[in-house]
Every structure is written in C-alpha cells, then in structure tokens.
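Now for a sample.
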Amino acid sequence: MKAIKLIITLLILIQVSSQAEEKRNPSPSLIKMKFSSVSQKDTAAINAFVRKGTKYLSSKENMLDIVKESIDSAVLICEKKKIDVPASLHLLLAQYHYVTGDLRSASEEASLALKMSAGSGESDVLARTNIFLGRYYLRTRFYAESLEYFDNAITISKKEKLKGLVPMVYYGKYEVYRTIGDLKAERQSLQLMIEAANEENNAALARRGYERLGYSYLGDTTTSERRNFKMADSIVRKSISVSSEISDTITIATSLTHLGWNFYLEKMYDSSIYYYEKSIKYSAHANLFSTSANSLGNLGTIYSDLGKPEKAIAYYKKGIAQALKVNDIYELWWIHRDMSNMYLKLADTSNAYRNFVLFKKYSDK
C-alpha cells in the first residue's frame, strides 16, 4: 500500500514539474508568435515617426522641433527594444543634420542609409539616399560626385519603377549644371524632367520644369547668351497653363513676372506693365511677398524709364515694404540700386547716395 502511494506521489510531482517547465519554456511556435507581434508593432511605430519627421522636414514651415522629436522617439524605441536603426531613419537623420548644418554627421548617416538599404533591398530608400547624396555633394561643391549619385538614383528608380523620383533627380542635375555654367546640359536636364513628369502624369513637377526652362531663355539683357524672346514666351506660357490646371498660384505669379521681364527687355512697356500687375493680383492674394516685391520694384523701374519719377518712387517704396516683410535681401538690394540710379538721373545726389548706401548694405550680405 505504501508503495502504491509513493508511486502516485511521484507521478503527481512529475506532472506538476512538467507543467512548470512548460510555463518556463513555452513552445518555439509560441515564442515566434509573440516575438513577431512585438516586432511588427515596434517597426510600425518607428516607421510612423519616420514618416512624420519626413513630412515636417519637407514642409514649407520646416518645423525642425517636430522633426527632432520624431527622430528621438524612433531612436528611443530602437534602443529600448534593441532594434537596429533602420535605413529610413538613418536617411531622416542625414536630412536633419544637413538642414541644421552638421554636414559631417549628415554624410555619416547617409553612408549608413546607403549601405543598409542596399543590403536589405529597400529600393525606395536606396534611391532617395542617392538623391540626398547628390544634393549633399552639390552643396559641398563636388559636382562630379553629385552627378554620379543623381545618375544612380535614376537607374534605381527606373529599374524598380519608383514614381515621382526621376523628375526630381533631373531637377537636381539641372541645379548642378546651372551652378557650373553648362547651359546646354541645364536645359537638357529640364527637358528630361518635363518628359519624365508627363510620363507619370505629374503636373506639379511638369509645371516646375516648364517654369525653370522658360526662365533659362530670359537672360539679364538683350545680348545675354541665354536670351531668346520667343522661346521664353512660349515655354513660360506653358508653365502658366499647366499651373492653372492644378491651381498653383505660386508658379502662376512667378511665371507672370517672367513674362513681364521678357517684354521689358524688348522695351514693350505696356505688355510688361500688364503682366507685372497681373502677377501682383496672384501674389498679393497668396501673401507671396518676394514675388510682389519683384513686380512692384520692376514697375518702379519701368516708370522711371518712362520719365515718371513720382509714380516710380511710389512703386519702389511698395516693393521695399513687401521685401522687408520677409527680409528678401536680393529684392532689397536691386530696388535700392535702381532707385539710386534714378535719383542720379534726376540730379538728386542726396537721395541717390542714401539709396546707394542701402544698396551696398544689402548687396554685401
């Protein structure tokens, strides 16, 4: 009887021990299920913070405090959960450092993003990192390297059929060629940008290409290498047409100033006045102070050329007031320069000198 009780006791102990062991060591499938659930949740949270940071970094307001908070939140999750920082977060860090002027850290983070995205097959991040490095090397004046990274981005984007990137890359190449003074390549890049944007039915990028391409034919004088009145007129009007389809007030207002300048250089003052005044209607409504300043300042110069100094001064002063609202140094220096020249013609040396001093103040900045 004692033997039977002992056997029963041993069986109970074995069963209890077995159950305890199961609790301490759950089955592999259970471990996998729990780990995957946590990992997916954390990854989703990290990606959400990256998207938020990227959104605010790309916004007009450029809200860097929110970008920094998003980055810190994503990094904190990685540290707490012992997750490797993903390529997309490295890219966001690179972009943040770039904007804040820490170019060394920007380069280091971009290198990590490039390596990780290439290894993991994240083609979108890889293409965008190449675009970032193209811009980085443009800023640091390594133009051959800039073009190489832009070309890499085009190759990846076309191979993986990534929409929206190819037109952006051609715009980046345009900026490189404009910086180094290669007019032919500058225009070719813009034409390729327009074609790529039209292939994707991306009117927003197409109108930007038309606006820049039209601008490339304006020139500063009638003898400028860039100058082609008919080409400028035709392409700028196309920019206005495409912009009107998507209600892009900014590009419409800017393009109208191009038409105003195009006619001014030909001394077709009535047409020039018409387009500058039309531009003001768009820019004033949208609080585009720099564009308004440009139109008003040029109207001042037109009336100065027409021998109407009182009207010219009124427009100049309005232009200066608009430029001061956004501290637009460029608009301020050339308006004061033109005012100084006007006063010299009027033999008003006092006002000529005063405006010349202001011209130098802003042009030296």
